[in-house]
Structures are given as structure tokens and as C-alpha cells.
Amino acid sequence: MKKRKLLKKVISGSRNVRFVEIQALLEAFGFRLDRIKGSHHIYVHPDIPELINVQNVKGRAKPYQVKQLLTIIEKYNLQIGEEE
Predict the structure, then answer these.
(1) Domain ranges across the chain
(2) Rounded to whole angstroms, how far apart are CA atoms 46 and 3?
(3) What is the structure's pLDDT at 71?
(4) Do the beta carbons of residue 42 and residue 52 sit within 8 Å?
(5) According to DSSP H, which parts of the chain are helical?
(6) What is the pLDDT of residue 81?
(7) With the C-alpha atoms ordered 60, 43, 65, 26, is the resulting torsion angle positive or negative?
(8) What angle do CA 37, 67, 74 make, to 5 degrees?
(9) Which mean pLDDT values do the consecutive 10-residue runs of the chain (84 residues) have?
(10) Alpha-carbon distance 73 to 15, whole Å?
């Protein structure tokens, strides 16, 4: 799925976000996987001091973690990088 279409899906409040989709969004906004500890995937951004933690629960992302990502995107006015 295209990154912008995926972002619209997430913004619309869909609670059915796959884990791989949230990972793709994180990478599109410039985050990189820093480490994995258990089920926690920790992402960092070079310009943002906050970490983002996402978990894979049966192939889905936790809704509150998706909401946290949206909050950080808005707070720091992040833009999607180049489309592939």
C-alpha cells in the first residue's frame, strides 16, 4: 500500500492496522529501528528526542501505539519521505 494512502487509513481512526504497515509508516517518516527487546520494537528519529515503541500482537499494531505515532507526527510536523 502506498505510504500516503496508508497514512490516510491510520488518520481515519482505523483500529485494524497491521504491524508491517506501522513499520512502513515509521520508516517513511524517517524513523529507524534502533533495537528489539522482547516484543518491543524501538524506533528512533535523528531529529526527535522521543522514542517510539511498537509491538506486534498477532500481526497487528496496538491502537494506542498508533495513536502515539500520530501525536508525534503532528507535534514535530513530520513529512513523509520520497515515495518508492
Answers:
(1) 3-75
(2) 20
(3) 95
(4) yes
(5) 3-11, 19-28, 63-75
(6) 78
(7) negative
(8) 110
(9) 87 90 95 96 96 95 94 94 62
(10) 18
**Does residue 66 contact residue 7 with C-beta atoms inside 8 Å?**
no
**Selecting from 3.40.30.10, 3.20.20.220, 3.40.50.720, 3.30.920.30, what CATH number does the domain 3-75 have?**
3.30.920.30
**Which residues, 6 or more positions from 84, have their beta carbon under 8 angstroms from its beta carbon?**
3
Q: What is the pLDDT of residue 63?
A: 92
C-alpha cell at 58: 498477532
What is the rounded CA–CA span in Å between residue 31 and residue 26? 5
**What confidence score (pLDDT) does residue 14 get?**
82
C-beta separation of 29 from 3 below 8 A: no
Res 13: pLDDT: 86
Model pTM?
Answer: 0.89
Q: Write down the pLDDT at residue 21.
A: 95
Cell 534502533, residue located: 34
